[in-house]
Design goal:
The chain is of the alpha+beta class. 51% of the residues lie in helices and 11% in strands. The strands form 6 sheets. It has a 4-stranded mixed beta sheet with strand order 1-8-7-10, with helices on one face. It has a two-stranded antiparallel ribbon with strand order 2-9. It is globular.
Length: 370
């Protein structure tokens, strides 16, 4: 079993894991809670059923506002307190641990939506091995690498090829500007016709090619617009306004201004922001983010978008607050990125496949001139 290096964790009882999620309730948990004294009391106090059954016919925890109905005033779980940790839904019991089984070993990372993970507070992660092993006896780890991975379309990667890509990123994200390693890997993924070729000079192409700059700006603008538009029909107009550097209002953050105002502040970010972004990206690579849920190319594009998104939202939150960039601004940006980009899948599949096609077509266009 391998644990994310240089990562610490101990629960700080912040209640973060109980807010903002749509937790599915497995049948065993539903059976334990149904008709219990706690469930009846929650129903009396909140007027809500303790679970909801939406249109997909899966049972999920009910929420009051943004928080689970079982979260008490001290931000503690009442199921855990009154019925024991084993009575909670699977997703609640596992958080923030993320376990992935590969042909080589089982890798244990953390969700960076967790306050302690973000701040790197607590004991070394490896000291939680007993807890993780107990979880694995009840909740099997996700498996990757036991069959070929989809690169994109008909392209595939065997496990040895995937490990080459991951090792390149793991090492490249430890030094220098994170976009350098990510752009080299992105070019290799879009042009792969044989063995990997990670050309260090390619990162300069991303800096000077207008076509690649425009593609990235379009993708970034549409990601922000999808989160910040007042209504779905306003997403594309907001995307175009951000790209054109017109005045915009971002509903989620409450900020009004031009994109260039954010861009102007980016070069003056404190060095620790860049260090923290690199730490987060390496944590994603370690927990096999590239191999899960989407194609490898789509996940690589997600990683490539994350540094500018994190920098922009860090600046945005400081501007809304009216002060210099502080760590709390970065943590707010990281929470948004982890929850809405790293973890979210439903409804976003078309977005990432479109981005993959855009990059493949753009790189195909400029490749003969490189």
């Amino acid at each position: 079993m391998k644990f994310l290096p240089d990562q610490n964790y101990d629960c700080v009882l912040c209640g973060r894991s109980c807010q903002g999620w749509n937790i599915e309730v497995d049948l065993a948990t539903r059976g334990r809670i149904r008709g219990s004294e706690l469930e009846l009391r929650v129903l009396q106090e909140t007027g809500l059923s303790s679970t909801l059954v939406p249109g997909d016919h899966r049972t999920r925890m009910a929420s009051r506002g943004d928080a689970c109905v079982y979260l008490d005033e001290n931000k503690l779980c009442r199921i855990h307190g009154e019925m024991g940790a084993g009575a909670k839904p699977h997703g609640c019991r596992q958080f923030p641990f993320l376990m992935v089984e590969t042909p080589d070993d089982t890798y244990v990372g953390l969700s960076f939506y967790c306050t302690a993970a973000q701040r790197n507070e607590g004991r070394p992660l490896a000291e939680h091995q007993d807890d993780v092993e107990a979880l694995l006896r009840k909740l099997p780890a996700r498996k990757v690498g036991f069959r070929p991975l989809v690169l994109e379309g008909d392209g595939q990667l065997d496990w040895a090829e995937y490990k080459e890509l991951e090792q390149f990123l793991w090492e490249g994200l430890a030094v220098g500007f994170p976009e350098r390693a990510l752009s080299i890997a992105l070019w290799a993924a879009c042009t792969k016709e044989g063995p990997w070729r990670f050309d260090p000079d390619i990162s300069e192409v991303f800096d000077r090619a207008t076509e690649l700059f425009d593609t990235r700006l379009l993708c970034l603008s549409s990601l922000v617009a999808a989160q910040e538009a007042a209504s779905p029909d306003q997403t594309w107009p907001l995307t175009e306004a951000i790209r054109a550097d017109e005045p915009v209002h971002l509903t989620r953050t409450g900020w009004t201004g031009r994109r260039s105002e954010i861009d102007a502040r980016a070069p003056n970010l404190p060095p620790w922001v860049h260090d923290e972004i690199q730490r987060y990206l390496r944590a994603l690579v370690f927990r096999k983010f590239l191999a899960l849920d989407r194609t490898v190319l789509q996940n690589l594009i997600v990683l490539y978008m994350m540094p500018p998104i994190l920098r922009s939202y860090t600046i945005l939150f400081s501007m809304v607050r009216g002060g210099e960039v502080e760590r709390e601004d970065y943590y707010r940006a990281l929470s948004f990125t982890e929850k809405d980009l790293s973890h979210t899948l439903q409804g976003a599949e078309g977005t990432w496949s479109t981005f993959a096609r855009l990059y493949q077509e753009t790189i195909k266009l400029i490749k003969p001139y490189v």
